[in-house]
């Protein structure tokens, strides 16, 4: 297809469809737990997991050069505050609304106080979660905030902590601010540093392009794995929870489109231009892995300026993820609260859940397990039992696909809103049918 110059997005979605069909065939013939399926998927995962690993390999370097590079691209330093405030404000505001939507979905599907079946896998998961919660249960919100601050930036650049991403963002922001100060007093040194960062950025983005060319193969392998190993019985038993989750996430996406309408951006054009990166996020289940495509889509297809796109994509990895840190923990809190005698219909308690979810959304890493980490923090802060996180393990991959797509969409919407506010948005790029990321693939 590539030799025939078929569009990149078409190749990606073809791979997605083929992966679903092939995975379903394996599921029907052998079953999810069969040894043949297990061994086959272990080999297929070399391509799928290997592709995601290559993308994750780029995350810390990309976050660093993106944030610092954004400072060097600022034509007027006064825009820095407006960009940062608008991006973070949009991410947090939409997360608060996403939490409300999650709670509303629980009420609509009558899941408040619901109980789920606990099998061997769920029991093992609950025990593992109990150990993991020990790392976060004693942290107060102020202590959580302090944990974002890097104490050893080299350790955080290697991603050793759950809050390493936001720590690198903070460190990069300090370097960027320092650059602005130096550039003002010593333009020659500032110019040299800007050229150095620009060179690093081009090198990193070139590596990104090389890796992104593997996207159709990676998505093919990832979809084979998801479809072939899904527990159909568990999905059926937890079907109501899955439906409620997708219902909530669909409403959040509609909220994103309404925001775009408010800032006078065509939502249909947005969906068309962002379909490739949203499709990748859906299949890979990694907001961090989708970051390179996120930046490419914002700048080359949606018309967001470079500085804002880099800020939005980087901050979106660790702040206010609508799906993983908004809808999901709010739903779990609303479901489990009645089981311990709490009136979840109380407006004050609903506002409490929303506030805790929004504050806790800081520092949630955009990699696998981010939603679990966020849920443990929220449930622990509200003194609610954490067992429910383990009880839904069977359908976690299925729900996580949509959650990740919503996370990425939110960061792109934040970029568009911010670029519009600072008057740097290029409508011509958004409306240009040829302005798509295929040009670099």
From TrEMBL:
Its main location: membrane. Coiled coil: none annotated. Gene3D superfamilies: Sodium:dicarboxylate symporter. One of its GO terms (molecular function) is L-cystine transmembrane transporter activity. Pfam families: SDF (PF00375). This is L-cystine uptake protein TcyP. Signal peptide: none annotated. Belongs to the dicarboxylate/amino acid:cation symporter (DAACS) (TC 2.A.23) family. It is found in: Membrane. One of its GO terms (cellular component) is plasma membrane. Keywords: Amino-acid transport, Membrane, Transmembrane, Transmembrane helix, Transport. It comes from the Bacteria. The chain crosses the membrane at residues 12-30, 50-71, 83-109, 164-182, 203-224, 244-263, 348-367, 373-393. It is a multi-pass membrane protein. The keyword Ubl conjugation does not apply. The keyword Transmembrane applies. InterPro entries: Na-dicarboxylate_symporter (IPR001991), Na:dicarbo_symporter_sf (IPR036458). It comes from Carnobacterium divergens DSM 20623.
